[in-house]
Every structure is written in C-alpha cells, then in structure tokens.
Design brief:
Radius of gyration: 16 Å
Bound molecules: ribulose-5-phosphate
Pathway: Carbohydrate degradation
Strand order of the largest sheet: 1-8-7-6-5-4-3-2
Protein name: Ribulose-phosphate 3-epimerase
CATH architecture: Alpha-Beta Barrel
Catalytic activity: D-ribulose 5-phosphate = D-xylulose 5-phosphate
Cofactor: Co(2+); Mn(2+); Zn(2+); a divalent metal cation
InterPro entries: Aldolase_TIM, Ribul_P_3_epim, Ribul_P_3_epim-like, RibuloseP-bd_barrel
Oligomer: single chain
C-alpha cells in the first residue's frame, strides 16, 4: 500500500514558511502535519492559533493537527474553526478520552488519538469506534530530529492486529525519527501514514525526499 505522507511543519524554516508550504503543496505529500506544544505536556513550546490559521490560508491539503497539550478539550473547537481537518489528542492528556474524540468529530474533523512510548495499545480496545486514526509516537515527543526508538515497532504490529480483530478501518500513523531507512519497516508493521520532519525539510531536495518516502515501500511477499 502506498503510504500517506504528512510532513511535519515543526521542521520547516519559519522565516520562509510560505515557501515551505508551497513546497508541500507542489509535492506528493498528502497532509500537512502541525505539532502544537504547550510546554507542559511536552518540554517544548511550538505555536498556536495564529500560525495554524496562517498555514491553513496557504495549505492546499488536509491539515492534521497534533495537540501535545494538556486539557485539549479546551481548544479542539477553535482549532477546528482555524481549519484543522484532523485533530489528534494524546491518550495521556485526556481524563475522558471518549468525550474528547466525540467532540472532535462533532467539530467536523477526523478524530485521532496519540500514544506515547509507555502506553500500551490495548488501552484503545474498548474505544475502537470512537477514533479515525491512531498516532504511535516513535520517539518521546517534544522535539524533532530524534532517533526512532525500536520498542515502538512492535506496538504498530500489535495495534494493527487489534484494529483488524475489531473490524476497524482507523489509520495508523508513526511520528518521530521517520526517514527513508526505517519507513519500509514501519509500513510492514502496519502503519498507514508517516509523519516526517527532519528527513523532509533537512533534505537538499525536500520534494524528492517526499517522493521517495511515498514510493519507498515494496510490499512483503507473503
Ligand atoms: O511530534 C513531533 C515531535 O514531538 C514531530 O512531529 C516529530 O518529531 C517529527 O520530527 P522528526 O521527523 O524530525 O523526528
């Protein structure tokens, strides 16, 4: 299967943001991935509504907003109004996850849930009808440019089994340290979409990096 590629805007050059957005518009990327960090849930602060709104004005593809913030229910509706098409919240940040996922859908967006490294996939077993995508963090979130943690790979396979067993068509994403070398492994494990920051924006030719990620996968022979 050809993966969905979602370049992470966190790694863009913010002095030339419009140029980088146009680069993604003209590439084989499928979504824009936007990381919102509050300095509490993760040890970093990225950006908020004005930047998301500015990206939306120029982006010609779906806007996948990843909220690495506490109490995301306070901000979901406003991110939807700013133009998010997909909103992902962290399992670890939600006291009432089902309620927040319902809120995201009621705001007209695809509902996503992200799992940090320490969170087993089976916490989602009773909620499979409530989300459209699951983002497996393949690093400890907060910063781009980290190395993928190999312990995250079997989590993707386990989640694929769980979703298949439940008859769910929710997408599985992977985020952190993703590049040409490890993308086939994660796709074989069951990932549908790949969030990539450094390997795209740090490349000499970002559009070519996206094209290679998109077309890298050789399906395993059964
Ligand atoms: O969620 C994130 C950080 O918490 C970023 O999306 C992720 O790190 C992507 O950047 P890179 O590809 O450079 O690892």
């Amino acid at each position: 299967m050809t993966p969905i590629i979602a370049p992470s805007i966190l790694a863009a050059d913010f002095a030339n943001l419009q140029r980088d957005i146009e680069m993604i518009n003209g590439s084989e990327a499928d979504w824009f991935h936007v990381d919102v960090m509050d300095g509490v849930f993760v040890p970093n602060i990225s950006f908020g509504f004005p930047v998301v709104e500015a990206i939306r004005r120029h982006a010609q593809k779906p806007l996948d907003v990843h909220l690495m913030i506490v109490q995301p229910e306070r901000y979901v509706d406003e991110f939807a109004r700013k133009g998010a098409t997909h909103i992902t919240v962290h399992y670890e940040a939600c006291t009432h996850l089902h309620r927040v996922l319902t809120q995201i859908r009621e705001a007209g967006c695809q509902a996503g849930v992200a799992l940090n490294m320490q969170t087993p996939v089976n916490v989602l077993a009773d909620l499979v009808d409530a989300f459209d995508q699951v983002l497996i963090m393949t690093i400890n979130p907060g910063f781009g440019g980290q190395q993928l943690l190999p312990l995250s790979i079997p989590k993707v396979s386990k989640l694929r089994q769980l979703l298949r067993g439940a008859g769910s068509s929710a997408l599985i994403g992977v985020d952190g340290g993703m590049g040409l070398a490890n993308t086939p492994t994660l796709l074989d494990a069951g990932a549908d979409y790949v969030v990539a920051g450094t390997s795209v924006f740090g490349a000499d030719d970002p559009q070519d990096a996206i094209r290679q990620l998109k077309n890298r996968h050789q399906p395993m022979v059964a």
